[in-house]
Amino acid sequence: MRAQMGRTIEELMDADPRLAVVLADISNGYFEGVAAAHPDRVVKVGIMEQTAVSLAAGLALEGFIPVCHSIAPFIVERPFEQIKVDFCYQRLGGNFISIGASYDYGTDGMTHQAPGDVPILCTLPGMEVVVSGTPGEFDALFRESYADGAPTYFRLHSQQNAADRPVHFGRLHVEREGSRATIVVVGPMLDRTLEAAEGLDVGILYCTTVAPFDGETLRAVVGDAPGHAVILVEPYYEGTLVPEVVRALRPAPVRIEAIGVPRRVLSRYGGPDEHDADLGLTADGIHRRMEAFLAAAPSM
Question: What value does the mean pLDDT of the chain take?
Answer without folding.
Answer: 95
